Amino acid sequence: MIEWVSVDPSTAITALTSLQADVVIARLPITEERAAVIDLSDTYLVTGERLLVQSTNDDIKDIGDLDTKTVCVQSGSGVDAHIEDANDSARTLALDTYSSCVGALLQGQVDAIGADELTLWGLARQQPTTKIVGRPILEERYGIGAKKNASDRQGFTPFLNTWLAGVIRDGTWGRLYAQHITPLSKETRTSP
């Protein structure tokens, strides 16, 4: 029997290390720090941080176009540092929520919103007068997290990797991407 437990980016690792969950499947970036405390599968999605602008904005196409422009980010997300590293002439405004950033964008108080693509896809779906632009500022690879390998868990990560390879090979990954992500990303992919 599967028991589903809700986690978010701030609780995903703790859920695994505290034995609250055996596996975390949602939005888990693969990092060396995480790999030190949990097991991680191979990559199931390559994504990154990008920019959201108003649909009528043709001036901002990439990070280089942010000179003297203001980018809204969510407080504590770390995106502000990535934007400043990529373009030291860009300004950032940190607000508590991305909803506040959308309000600031629509009112012309900021020129763009910086966030991971998954967040931006959701914001663009909610606000159709916006569009996502630019190459990823920072690339992220998402994987499935599992409790660290122990005597009762030998072989689980190889099982996950074999399963992922199978859904990519048989086309399931591409069909799911086309169904759920292409309408938001406007891209077609057949693998991560």
Polypeptide structure, described:
- The protein has 8 helices and 8 strands, in the order H-E-H-E-E-E-H-E-H-E-H-E-E-H-H-H.
- The chain is of the alpha/beta class and 192 residues long.
- The strands form 2 sheets. A 5-stranded mixed beta sheet has the order 5-4-6-3-7, with helices on both faces.
- The longest helix has 14 residues.
- The model has no long low-confidence stretch (mean pLDDT 91).
| Uncertain runs | none
The percent range for strand residues is 15-25%
Got a strand count? 8
Reported for the largest beta sheet, the result is: 5 strands, mixed
Helical content class? 25-40%
**Count of separate DSSP helical elements:** 8
Mean pLDDT: 91
Quickly describe the structure:
With 192 residues, this protein is α/β, with parallel strands linked by helices.
Describe the SSE topology.
Blueprint: H1 12-17, E1 23-24, H2 32-35, E2 39-40, E3 45-54, E4 70-74, H3 79-86, E5 91-95, H4 98-106, E6 112-116, H5 117-126, E7 130-142, E8 145-146, H6 156-169, H7 172-180, H8 182-185
Parallel strand pairs: 4-5, 4-6
Antiparallel strand pairs: 1-8, 2-8, 3-6, 3-7
Write a concise keyword list for the protein shown above.
single chain; about 190 residues; alpha/beta; about 35% helix
